[in-house]
Amino acid sequence: MSFMEGILNTYAQFFDGHMWLEVLTDPVSWGLxxxxxxxxxLLSADNALVLAVMVRHLPADKRRKALFYGxxxxxxxxxxxxxxxxxxxxxxxxxxIGACYLAWLSIKYFLDRRKPAPVxxxxxxxxxxxxxxxxxxxxxxxxxxxxxxxxxDIAFSVDSVLAAFGVSQKVxxxxxxxxxxxxxxxxxxxxxxQLIDRIPELETTAYILIAIIAVKMFLAVFHIEITHTYxxxxxxxxxxxxFLVHFWKKRKNEKSHL
Length: 258
Hints:
Elements: H1 3-13, H2 17-24, H3 27-54, H4 60-88, H5 92-113, H6 120-127, H7 134-167, H8 171-198, H9 201-221, H10 228-256
Helix pairs in contact: 1-4, 3-7, 3-8, 4-7, 4-8, 5-7, 5-9, 7-8, 7-9, 9-10
């Protein structure tokens, strides 16, 4: 099968009613979709904040429009990325590159944690749009911002799509999880921000999960599959430890203030 035939065959599965029925009636599939959505929510909380900062220079009535156009672009990119990725992920070297990239994301997060935290105002200033930037000059204030949001969405989506392929390679699971993930970044990212504010350890948990997914993807190169049962067990253990550490730290802080 040629490259183009493989891509077209993958997209044809998007419109397969039998596959729809199989996914919707399979509890394991919904468990995998749920895992992707939770991971996306944890990872997208800061991303949503960055996007909000990027459009804050626009009038209030245009901010939502800019984010909405960015949302359409994010959906289009994921649809294309998943269609191509389902074919490419069958190549062993693609899995190795994907696993290494996800592992680097996790390692980089823990390395960055050891650095001094940046001042919030400076962080916002860097994340905000440069009104004299090339995109603003080329397309104007509004459309320049829309293009910037689109590019940022694509950058965020690369990490999420790779993580999704580490969890499952079933087309519909990837599609539903990916599309719901984009919605998470726009719709309920604020809730996840509040949740992470209350339980900061969840941010670390997200990158531990990415490391687990990287190992899962790398093992698949050698045809060693982590079953769904073991994968869900690892997720539950990871979240369980997260909450135990949080309550232990909370109790320790309460005792230190007595």
